[in-house]
Amino acid sequence: MADIEAPLIAAAAKPGQFVIVCLFGGYSERIPLTIAGSDAKKGTIRLIWQAVGKSTAELGNLNVGDKVENILGPLGKPTHVEKFGTVVCVGGGIGSAPLLPIATAMKKAGNKVVSILGARTKELLILEDDFKAISDELIVVTDDGSYGKKALVTQPLEEICQRTPRPNLAVAIGPAIMMKFCCATTKKYDVPTVVSLNTIMIDGTGMCGGCRVDVGGQTKFVCVDGPEFDGHLVNFDLMMKRMQAYKKQEAQAMEEYKKHKCKIGLDK
What we know:
By secondary structure, this protein is α/β, with parallel strands linked by helices.
């Protein structure tokens, strides 16, 4: 996590939008990261990421005061926020980061906010206190039962959908497989569901075509048409297949980078 000085972006950022980060200018990888918070008075934006590849490992190795060469944003369409009634906000793993400003905005708009946070294990759970501060109800689950309730996020989500009255809206952000099953759950109860597909983006400006997704039988580009869509219309199976396109190259880049332990402080 880092607060980055970017006054123009901080002044314009809205929930649901993202930035493109280039650590070292034109020769570095473009990393799309959803804005996890912004402070217009301080001129800062908050980014939260998990070091799963070379560029995110490099980003995590920066020190206070270091410079990020280029940050482009805010990009993408902001979340549609209004007083819906009861909004269920479901965050899986690192997906809780982009979910927080959305849940906060929903609460400010007068909604009852029920938040569900899930992670594989306790150590990977983030932002619990932040969600507790803005939620009318907070449910925490872990896959291994090391913290909160041992369950997947779909279990409490289904229980909430069975309440009377049902939730008016669900917002789910996390791994594609998690969002797929969240949408399958809410669809049974006719609860409208919004998902964010930011993990498939590459260029972030609509030029590369790498973030093509099928939404209701139509081709959409996540970076310019989204990143949020009606989850009941998203072809998640196709999306997950397309997300494998660069896995080999990503793994190779990370392995080569790991050899330089001095750069990222790896002990293993």
